[in-house]
Amino acid sequence: MLLLALKHSRSPDVLNVLPQIIRLSEKIPNGDYDYLKVVLIYLASVINKGLTVQLWKIVAKEHSGGEVYMETIADLLREEERLKREKIERKLHKEIE
After folding, report:
1. For residue 10, which of 47, 51, 64 has the smallest C-alpha distance?
2. Degrees (nearest 5) of the Cα angle 20, 3, 65?
3. pTM here?
4. d(C-alpha 61, C-alpha 90), whole Å
5. 7 CB contacts (<8 Å, ≥6 apart)?
6. Which tens digit of pLDDT belongs to each residue from 8-59?
7. Domains in the chain: how many in total?
8. Using the 8-state DSSP alphabet, how is residue 10 labeled?
């Protein structure tokens, strides 16, 4: 899963490989999908931002619990954006002082 994600993460065909990554994750014994979560977070952070919506649609369609991943990763991305804004605000406050 990780090797496929790394290989295709910066290429346009990442969305074509995503269903294969999801199918591989479903073969993990004991239904442990934490590996998929890590791979999806990685992909969401490195792919072209214009592909993000398509990525989540594929996850929701291909994975039985896809909606849960979408919510989790959306929360993570919101937190990332909040941290970026706070960093910029701190920098501006220092410049003003």
Report:
1. 47
2. 40
3. 0.63
4. 41
5. 17
6. 988 878 899 999 998 888 888 765 557 888 888 888 888 887 787 788 888 8
7. 1
8. T
